[in-house]
Amino acid sequence: MTVLEIKNVTKRFGSLVAVRDVSLRVPKGELRAIIGPNGAGKTTFFNLISGFFPPTAGSIAFDGRDITQLPAHRRVTLGMARTFQITEIFPELTVFENVRIGVEVASGYRLRPWIGAAASARVHRSVEDLLKLTGLTASADRLVGELAHGHQRAAEIAMALALRPHLLLLDEPTAGMGDQETYEITQLIGRLHRDEKFTIVLIEHDMRVVFHLADRISVLDQGSLLAEGTPQEIAANEAVQAAYLGQAA
User: Fold this and answer.
1) CA distances (Å), 10 to each of 22, 23, 161, in order?
2) pTM score > 0.85 for this model?
């Protein structure tokens, strides 16, 4: 089953072509990494997938449904969740409260002034399950703004998971992290993919993370798809080495 299918997508901003004729197919259960040098069009491409920009040309299908013209919030209700390069959380609330917001939104309680005891208990159990899954149980009562960056990222991922996504989009999940935090987030993403069977598409600059996690890798360069393949195929691709990997060395 194909979760995400992008056909010949182009995005123009005036005379600037940020993404040019890119196609991508992500089957259920795959972890796909999108890499490329700065200015390659990765963030624009992610914004097209998640609905923040409409494409100038081409089509996007999610779970077999054409979503090309759907706005971001509609894509979320269909089962697409995204994290951002700059962590999007409520720093003045606890970890538990942050995740609870996500669970209540997913459960349809967002506009209710109160919910019954049974519903509240279900929400509480869901939050606890997500905290356990993301390794945040011990931090449940701490303010998110007090946490280390890696734990803040884990809290943001927990909020995304609360939406029960069919597709999880992770934008630079290890950005700004040291080695230990990078290791912990990489382990978390690996568990979500391997054990929980989430379909994941991520943008990532750290090639150690990419080659450790990805089933397949898509390489963008100057807005176009330069190469696509397994980590082994991408590592051996001379065009990729010249455009990206060689620059990082």
Assistant:
1) 7, 9, 29
2) yes
